[in-house]
Specification:
This protein is α+β, with helices and mostly antiparallel strands. It has helices spanning 3-14, 30-40, 60-66, 74-79, 96-105, 111-126, 130-154, 170-173, 204-207; strands spanning 52-57, 82-89, 158-162, 181-190. The protein has a four-stranded antiparallel β-sheet with strand order 1-2-4-3. It holds the Pfam family Nitroreductase.
């Protein structure tokens, strides 16, 4: 990593703020949002099963549906360019063969490795308890959410992760099966209309042991 790139990267990371009021005149095109999501989904996931699913809520109708479900975050919903609802798919293993077949087709994996991986994954998830799957897909979706925030920042946008909303009803409100799709978080995105507060972090020697 050269010096300029490292400087830019640290500005992206350390300059991130949780923004609650956005410039309502700033919109994000579908093409750019697609690019942001594509870049975010280069995040790692367990066995490359990519359990994350997104609902991009950027229309007036979509925000009207979201508002009563996220009433404690009204300003973010109303002023942001979009709110991205991140879900995790309990049935992500259904796509195992599609994922690994595509890897073979693109020359990224030999067929014999594909066969071993697919058989192993089928064995793991055949009788896996739902709670174990939940732990895995929440971890993976947390990774993509953090990467999404950093990618948005690299595109010149600000974000705010939102955990306070009606998780019980949000899947059905946007046409998803509530037993299949686990709500992870909401993420507002847009251009900040006011500066967010810089927050305090513990020093590393307070939170780290060296062995």
């Amino acid at each position: 990593m050269n010096t300029t790139t490292e400087k830019d990267f640290m500005e992206i990371v350390k300059g991130r703020r949780s923004i609650r009021v956005y410039d309502e005149n700033v919109k994000i095109s579908k093409d750019e949002m697609t690019q942001i999501l594509e870049e975010a989904t280069t995040a790692p996931s367990s066995l490359n099963l990519q359990p994350w699913r997104f609902v991009v809520i950027d229309s007036a109708e979509g925000k009207d549906t979201l508002l009563p479900l996220a009433s404690f975050n009204k300003r973010q919903v109303e002023t942001s360019a979009a709110v991205i609802a991140i879900f995790a798919d309990y049935q992500m293993a259904d796509y195992t063969e599609e994922i690994f077949d595509t890897a073979v087709e693109r020359g990224l994996m030999p067929p014999e490795v594909r066969d071993r991986q697919v058989d192993m994954i089928k064995g793991i998830y055949k009788d896996a308890p739902k709670e174990a799957i939940k732990d895995s897909i929440l971890l993976d979706s947390g990774l993509v959410a953090m990467q999404l925030m950093l990618v948005a920042r690299a595109h010149g946008y600000d974000t705010n992760p939102i955990g306070g909303y009606d998780k019980k009803n949000i899947a059905e409100a946007f046409g998803l099966e509530k037993e299949r799709y686990l709500p992870v978080m909401l993420l507002s995105i847009g251009k900040a209309a006011e500066d967010g507060y810089q927050s305090v972090r513990f020093p590393i020697d307070r939170i780290t042991d060296w062995k």
